[in-house]
Amino acid sequence: PAAVNAAPILLVIVRDGHPEAGATALGLLDDALTFAVCDRRTRVATSYAEVVPICCALADQLRRHAGLLAASGAEGRRLLADAAHHWRFDVQEAVAEEDGVAAFGVLAGRFPGGTQPAELHRAGHVTPLAVQVAPHYPLSDRSPDEACLRMDGARLDEVAPPAVLFPGRCGSGSADR
After folding, report:
1. Which parts of the chain fold into alpha helices (H)?
2. Residue 117: which residues within 8 A CB-CB, separation 6 or more?
3. What is the band of 98 on the pLDDT scale with cuts at 50, 70, 90?
4. Residue 40 confidence class, pLDDT cut points 50, 70, 90
5. SS3 content of the chain, % helix, strand, coil (to 5)
6. C-alpha span between 71 and 58 (Å, rounded)
7. Is 78 helix (H, G, I), strand (E, B) or coil?
């Protein structure tokens, strides 16, 4: 869990430190993200959910510094690309449909194609969704942070805001990307 707290310090080293120290800091961030994906027991409290997989919380820290990482050479760009796999979807509105729920909200990171397992976070509780999550309509490059996800078989009371979705693979400890 210290990796999430250390990320801002390591990113300052990347920005302001000696180039070799910056490369080492990028390596430490990469190691932390890689390790965190494999350890499902490690979760942290954030401002948007209370028991977030550490890899997703660390990915949020990295996305906040996308410009710095993109300008930090191949290692920084690769780290940013790896962080994108740890998406987060903040549900702002949910609507019942005949076969499930459509949720409108803000997407951080990159939602992979097709249907995906997800875990739902509400009021300190984590629930692995028994249903798969998929884009309700194609995600737009014009406004990549706005999205609508479909959850066939879900109930409105399960998904109603405030709720946050994370990739189910992160909570399961699966390192597959």
Report:
1. 2-16, 19-38, 54-63, 66-70, 73-84, 156-159, 168-172
2. 128, 129, 132, 133, 167, 168, 169, 172
3. confident
4. low
5. 40, 25, 35
6. 19
7. helix
Q: Are residues 7 and 69 in the same domain?
A: yes
* Same domain flag for 157 and 112: yes
pLDDT in tens, 111-137: 988 899 999 998 878 888 878 899 988
Domain co-membership, 75 together with 97: no
Say if residue 75 is in the same domain as residue 104.
no
Which residues are CB-contacts of 96 (< 8 A; sequence separation ≥ 6)?
A: 155, 156
Contact 158, 120 (CB under 8 A): yes
How high is the mean pLDDT of the chain?
88
Residue 123 domain flag: yes
Domain-ending residue, one of 64, 84, 104: 84
In a domain, 176, yes or no: no
- The domain in which residue 145 lies consists of 88-169
